[in-house]
Amino acid sequence: MNENNYYLNDLAIRLLICFLQKHIKHASDIKNYHFDLPQFIIDVTKAVNELLVHLNCSQHLQWTADFVCRGRSTVDRDIKK
């Protein structure tokens, strides 16, 4: 993992923890939240691809695949969900 990827992962973790710290006052409150990792990956893939399309990137599927560390065919399948 290169330094930029680590920074984005760290930033995402910090944002999630800040959100939880603001909304969870007691340990039992955590039961009100559910993190769906497979759906999160699909949502991030779609968002990154949409950004690249908006930026008129002709290689958006490959760049999205590189960014989310997945295969191009997987990205193509995920953005159609």
Secondary-structure map:
Layout: H1 3-23, H2 37-54, H3 60-67, H4 72-79
Helix pairs in contact: 2-3, 3-4
How would you concisely characterize the structure shown here?
The chain has 81 residues and is an all-alpha fold. The chain is built from four helices and no strands. Helix 2 runs antiparallel to helix 3 and helix 3 crosses helix 4.
Keywords:
elongated, 81 residues, 0% strand
3D architecture notes:
The protein has two domains: 1-34; 36-81. The chain is built from four helices and no strands. The chain has helices at residues 3-23, 37-54, 60-67, 72-79. It is elongated, with a radius of gyration of 15 Å. The two termini are 27 Å apart. 7% of the residues are buried.
Shape: elongated
Radius of gyration over C-alpha positions, nearest whole angstrom: 15 Å
Task: Flag low-confidence runs.
Answer: none
Taking the alpha carbons of the first and last residues, their distance comes to: 27 Å
Largest sheet, strands/sense/barrel: none
Calculate the mean pLDDT score and round it: 90
The structure class reads mainly alpha
Order of helices and strands: HHHH
Quickly count the helices. 4
User: Based on DSSP secondary structure assignment, what is the total number of beta strands?
Assistant: 0
Strand fraction equals: under 5%
